[in-house]
Each structure stands twice: as structure tokens, then as C-alpha cells.
Amino acid sequence: MTRSLRLNNHQIADLTVLFGLLSLVLWYFWDAYNASTQVLNLILIVPVTGLLLILCLIEFISQIRNSDRETPALDPVSSIVPVVSLFALYVATLPWLGFDVGTFLFVSLFLWLHGERRWQWALGYGLCFASLIALFFSEMLPYPMPMLLLPTDY
Fold first, then answer.
1. DSSP code of 16?
2. Which of 27, 101, 106, 125 allows an S-S link to 148, with CB 3.0 to 4.6 Å?
3. Which DSSP category does 117 fall into?
4. Nearest to 46 by CA among 58, 28, 73
5. Can you list the pairs that 122-125 forms with residues at least 24 positions away whose Cβ atoms lie under 8 Å?
6. Distance between CA atoms of 135 and 149, rounded to whole angstroms?
7. Whose CA is closest to 103, among 129, 139, 137?
8. Per DSSP, which regions of 11-142 are E strands?
9. Residue 68 — very low, low, confident or very high, per pLDDT cuts 50/70/90?
């Protein structure tokens, strides 16, 4: 039994983005490899590259296998504009609010915009996520992060 491969416009766009992501991942790996083949330089890059290549392959197979599925309904612009505006406000206020407080507010308000009406959950998740990600980045990055509440190594 022969099955013809018919991709709709949405799937072609998805595969184009997937190919772009795959190209960027491979380019970054090649650039890092050419810069230095030492283990300390590649210790994080090689596993992340491998994981991303596997995820790209899984998504590619999924797109091809489900080539006859319907195009999903797109969100109206009115639902996207508030999130993009919130993100722009988040980035613009990071120097004053700090990464810790800015991330907390962004995540909590993002959850609220997406329908989470239990304020304890939105604030709690925002607090946990912002604390963990701020501590992670402050330890992993070689330069100090602007923080408002959490201690920094200035």
C-alpha cells in the first residue's frame, strides 16, 4: 500500500522552522568545536547538541507521519499582543526590577493572562520558578546578574 505524502502549509512552515533550528544547532556546535576541542569547552555543548538533534528527528518523523492531519486553528492576534507586550515590558524593566523580581512578575502575570485564576498558584509558581532560575543563572554565568532581592557577587 502506497501512501502519498501531502503536507499542508502549516506543516511546511513547521518543517522550515525545524530545519532552521537544526541548522543553528549544528552551526553552533561546529563553531564551538573549531574554537576549542578541549573537554571543558564541549562538556555541555555536545550533550545539548545531541539532545536537540534527537528532538528535531522525533519532530520531523512526527510531522511526516501525520501529514494528513488538519491545520490547527491559530490564536487570534488579540490573544498574542498582551503576551508580547508583557515580554517587552519584562525586558525593558530588568535593569530596575532585577532578574529575580522581573522574572517573578513576568511568569505570574503570564499565567494570569493564560487563564490561571488561582492567585496562590500563579504567585507560587512564579516565585519558585524565578528563584530557581535566578539562582541558577547567577551561579552559571561568568558575569553578575542584576538582582533586586537575591544576593549577587558584584
1. H
2. 101
3. -
4. 28
5. none
6. 11
7. 129
8. none
9. low
Q: What pLDDT does 129 receive?
A: 94
Instruction: Give the C-alpha separation, 150 to 60, whole Å.
Output: 42
pLDDT digits (tens, 9 = 90+) for 34-67: 988 887 778 888 899 999 999 999 988 888 887 6
User: CA torsion sign, 59 to 64 to 70 to 71?
Assistant: positive
SS3 call for 37:
coil
For residue 41, the number of C-alpha atoms closer than 13 Å in the C-beta half-sphere is: 11
Do 103 and 130 meet the contact criterion of CB atoms below 8 Å apart? Answer: yes
- Kindly tell me the sign of the dihedral angle through the C-alpha atoms of 45, 46, 51, 53: positive
Q: Which amino acid is it at 18? A: L
pTM of the model: 0.57
Instruction: For residue 98, count other CB atoms closer than 10 A to its CB.
Output: 20
**At 29, which amino acid appears?**
F
Cell of 57: 528527528
CB 8 within 8 A of CB 71: yes
